[in-house]
Design brief:
It is a single chain. With 334 residues, the protein is α/β, with parallel strands linked by helices. Helices cover 41% and strands 16% of the residues. It has a 12-stranded mixed beta sheet, sandwiched between helices.
Length: 334
């Protein structure tokens, strides 16, 4: 199988959430929603996927190279690991399967047997009960790829906006302590490099948000813009990066402002995620930048409250699969 034909690896996510039904439905509608895209395989959970779809649709494969031959007629599932399908009822058995699926999907991608990994949503609290020691899947991926946590950058990407939070799964009270000139420069460099390599943007424009209201209004509402953010932006410009700011966050995401940059670098989790979810909730993708592999995920959670009811919108999962394939193609052809 050539590099251009490598399949995508998909992790099942929590089997009690909406991940299995989304994956199964997308495979069922593959000719319409994934036209021209690479085929994919799922790691584990064959019986879960069949139950979620309401029919026997899966076939067990022993190696990712079998994906393309099976994909037209069956949903390929790598390995026989599975559990009972109990939508909206998360438990340790399901969390263990989710962790196995995530680890194996990542491993096969690192081994070059898949062109990218797409991760379905997990419940972090459930994973913690079965030994998962990371704040989220992004930090897990950084570790297994041999990187420091700050070397893996979370970007939320939709049709309207790409945004990167500098600090992620930390308390808001800790954000100021964690901000530094070095952190801003480091994550801006990783973001710009990924926009060039994986998104085909030759000269990325990075807009950097302020931390305080009105970007502190000349120091009236805080000193972080003057002492940390502005010096970091100046250093990035001296390196040749098209970086601007610090921008008041309340105006940075307006339609006119978004025309002026390719990605927004934000100071904390909600500053980045709220506008992406407001603008592109059903098409938002979580992309991990800076890894030696491509990883995407839908920008939503397990939605246990509607799992199994066939109410979940597959748009974000479709977008995650499509983006993974497009990024992989750019790396292959670049």
């Amino acid at each position: 199988m050539s590099a251009k034909q490598l399949p995508l690896a998909i992790s099942l996510g929590d089997p009690a959430g909406i991940g299995p039904e989304l994956i199964a439905r997308i495979w069922q509608e593959r000719r319409d929603v994934l036209r021209g895209q690479a085929p994919f395989f799922v790691v584990g959970g064959a019986s879960v996927l069949d139950r979620a779809l309401g029919q026997q649709a899966t076939t067990i494969i022993s190696d990712p190279t079998e994906t393309a031959a099976a994909f037209g007629d069956y949903l390929p599932v790598l390995g026989e690991e599975t559990c009972e399908y109990r939508p909206a009822q998360p438990d340790d058995e399901g969390a263990a399967l989710a962790l196995h699926s995530l680890a194996e999907a990542t491993r096969h991608t690192l081994l070059g047997k898949a062109s990218a990994v797409v991760t379905a949503p997990v419940a972090k609290a459930q994973l913690a009960k079965v030994g998962f020691e990371y704040p989220g899947q992004t930090e897990f991926l950084a570790d297994v790829c041999g990187l420091k946590p700050d070397d893996a950058v979370m970007m939320l990407a939709g049709p309207s906006l790409k945004a990167v939070p500098l600090t992620v799964h930390v308390a808001l009270a800790d954000v100021v302590r964690l901000l530094s000139l070095e952190l801003i420069q480091h994550k801006a460099r990783i973001t710009a490099a990924a926009l060039r390599r994986d998104f085909g943007i030759a000269r990325p424009r990075i807009a950097i948000a302020g931390l305080n209201p009105h970007a502190s209004e000349g120091g009236k509402f805080g000193c972080e813009e003057r002492e940390i953010i502005a010096p970091a932006i100046e250093a990035l410009r001296e390196e040749g990066m098209d970086a601007s700011g610090p921008h008041p966050a309340d105006a940075l995401f307006s339609p006119r402002a978004r025309d002026g940059y390719d990605a927004a670098l934000c100071m904390y989790h909600d500053q980045a995620l709220i506008p992406v979810k407001a603008l592109d909730f059903d098409q938002g993708v979580n992309v991990t930048l800076g890894l030696p592999i491509i990883r995407t995920s839908p920008d939503h959670g397990t939605a246990f409250d509607i799992a199994g009811e066939n109410m979940a919108d597959p748009g974000a999962m479709v977008a995650a699969i499509r983006m993974a394939g497009e990024c992989a193609a750019r790396r292959t052809n670049g």
